Each structure stands twice: as structure tokens, then as C-alpha cells.
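call fold target=TPR domain protein
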Amino acid sequence: MTHTALGLSLSLYRFPQAPELLLFDNNTRGLPLIYNVAIDAAKKDPAILVFVHDDIWLNDFYWLERIREAVQHFDIAGVAGNRRRVAQQAAWAFVKANPDVDGSQPSHFNWDEPQYLSGAVGHGKMFPCEVSRYGPSGVECKLLDGLLLIADSEKLAAHDLRFDERFDFHFYDLDFCRQAELRNMKMGTWPISVVHESAGAFATPRWHAGYKKYLEKYGE
């Protein structure tokens, strides 16, 4: 953990009351499965839950304060998202997945229009880094990027919301947001400065398998 972006970030901060960490080192299981472990544990010990990838740098000196602010405004919060949702969405930021020229699996993606996107994320392994500023933060969204999700455990319990374990490392975030939407939960972005080392893994066999499950579940 101390060799990951998240672990190194956390080691830099000194907290009056340190956050409790639930770590899954060298994890090969799906993220929904391990995130649900945290949700279940919090039923007996309520907490603000932060579901975050280990390749995230927390560059915001006041990230704990930002997280507390986020749950005061939203039931579920993230750092980037989309203010709308459309049929056959291939990711929170994409509206369509286009097939290869031979008509096979989709591998080309169309970004949604800028007015629907929200938040900002840094990219790379160094700082200063490239920053993708998608749009204004602090606004309601239909979909959130799963690189970092924040929720009050008591809100999740009250709405009986968990991650769907049929997904592993892809589409769990879109599904989580759609479940939240069906429960009339309020979702949105909040300004928290983070840097993501990964650019994502789209159009891989695992991604295609996740997309198929997602379309089968919702019929669109």
C-alpha cells in the first residue's frame, strides 16, 4: 500500500483523528465485492465511506474537509460526472460506443457534449500534471466516475443500496449510480483535487464483458 499513489498520499497527512482504512492489497476480486464489505461493516459502525482506487493521488490538502462537505450536499458524490444519462452509454463521459470498421466490438467512443460534464481530474504520475476540466463542480449528476465515490453509510443502508457484484472492474460505477437514481438519491460532484495515474482500460475483453452485462441488466 505504501508504494501506491493512494498510500503515499495518505502518508503525507497528519490527522487529529485519522480516517479508518479498509485495505485490500493486491486485490484480484471485483471492486463491488470488496466495496460491499465496507458497506456491511458500516451498518454496525456508521461512517462516511470513500470508495477510491489505489492509483489516486490525493492532492487536496483539505480533502477530509471536502469529503465532509460533499455528503452535506449529496447522498453520493464524486469528483467527475455527467448531468445526464443516455441509452447505451459506454462510460460516464461517453454517449456512444462505435464498432470497429469491421463491425465487431465497439472500440471508438464519442464524448458527451461539454455542457453536460462536471468536475475535474488530473492525469499522470507527476505533479504538475495534465488536468481534464470537464465542467463546473458542485452540481447534480446522473452518473459519476468510479475512481472516487463518497457516501454516508447510513444513507446507503436507508436506501438498501449496494454495489452489484455481477460487475468487477468495469460498469460498477454506472450501475451504482443507476441504482441510486431509481431510489431517488441525490448525486453530484464536489471539488476535490486528485490525480489519476491510469487513463482507464476501455475496449478490452473485460470491458466488453462488463458492457454486455450492463446492457443486459437495463435493456439499453
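return ok
The helical segments are 5-11, 31-41, 63-73, 153-158, 172-182, 205-218. The mean pLDDT is 88.
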